[in-house]
Amino acid sequence: MVILLAALVLGGLGWLAWRGHGRDTRTGDQPLRLPARPLGGKPIPPERLSGGLIVVSGLTKEYRGSKAVDGLSFAAQPGRVTGFLGPNGAGKTTTLRVLLNLAEATAGTATIGGVRYADLDQPIRRVGAVLETSAAHQGRTGRDHLRIICRASGIPLARADEVLELTGLALAAGRAAGGYSLGMRQRLGVAAALLGDPQVLVLDEPANGLDPEGIRWMRGLLRTLAAHGRTILVSSHLLGEMEQLADDLVIIASGRLVAEGTVASVIGSMADARRTLVRTPQPAELAVALGSGAVVTPAGDGDVYITGVDAVTIGDAAQRAGIAVHQLVTQRPDLEAAFLQLTTERAAIR
Ligand SMILES: Nc1ncnc2c1ncn2[C@@H]1O[C@H](COP(=O)(O)OP(=O)(O)O)[C@@H](O)[C@H]1O
Ligand SMILES: [Mg+2]
């Protein structure tokens, strides 16, 4: 009898745990549709848009004589997702910390709507930030964590449930945050940042620790927020991730600006690394026909890579010179490699 009871209790516990686990994955890592009424949020009225402009100007931050950020200037526009990109140690977190008044600039300024964070009226309603994931008290439920922030900031407590819904945490709201998966902690961080329905959202490497579904969810959320006129500044060390998420890119290395512009223009400039694979029985003659603008290098099996001119130029030149071409393939550059080269070259100049 005792054994039977024990088995029942253990079985019941096991079932509860299994159920809890099932919930965990459902709330933590599945794609989520945004509610029809995102953020209780209306689009930002046009007259308020300029209040969301982020401007970093001549920013330098030294730590014991070494420059983590070195004369950095860039802007992030309202209504756009700006990808703040750079390899580890480039100075991204430091820049964002100065922007959010968590560190003091050695020189230069970082402003939001023309005002330094420290001088903002009701900053929680202007700027939401997700800097690290482990900020919630481990024993506190997700909902309580958010309600405490509401209470401290004069935000109605009901807003906690709105942002829990928005970030897909509604089912986990009553559980201790200590038991959340990394993905759920990221969502809780985003939920906290959205409490004040801010015009500006700053996120430091939010994709870290997220699985592909989580990343897709984050992308959808940030794109929606930007579509409503919000300014989204999001850092990452992965170009591929930013290529899919951002409208604009700011690339830094060793604390300095390397490239800035729309994703298309920045990646387009990297595409100078684009090359054409050519199969011809007369590579030497083709090289002569192309002249000094082209660089011809062996590609194995008698093929050659040609850079410096595009495939149309190569095809036309071959035809004029009566050179047979059996294959002509434009190869998209390995963007991640081009990015690495761009940023390491810059780092080496230092
Ligand atoms: N509190 C600090 N004290 C000393 N050095 C720091 C501190 N924070 C960052 N650094 C240094 O500044 C540089 C930039 O760091 P960080 O801003 O964290 O780069 P990223 O976020 O791009 O990886 C690194 O060399 C780092 O070691
Ligand atoms: Mg960082």
Briefly say what this structure is:
By secondary structure, the chain is of the alpha/beta class.
Mean pLDDT: 84
The radius of gyration is 26 Å
Tell me the number of structural domains: 2
Q: What is the straight-line distance between the termini?
A: 77 Å
Major sheet description: 6 strands, mixed
Catalogue the ligands. adenosine-5'-diphosphate, magnesium ion
Number of helices: 12
Run of helices and strands: HEEEHEHEHHHEHEHEEHEHEEHEH
**Uncertain ranges:** 1-40
Structural class: alpha/beta
**What is the CATH H-level superfamily of the largest domain?**
P-loop containing nucleotide triphosphate hydrolases
Tell me roughly what share of residues is in helical segments.
Answer: 25-40%
The number of E-state strands comes to: 13
Instruction: Specify the CATH class of the largest domain.
Output: Alpha Beta
Proper CATH architecture of the largest domain? 3-Layer(aba) Sandwich
Strand content: 15-25%
Strand order of the largest sheet: 5-6-7-3-8-9
Query: Judging from the principal axes of the Cα atoms, what is the shape?
Result: elongated
Instruction: Kindly identify the CATH topology of the largest domain.
Output: Rossmann fold
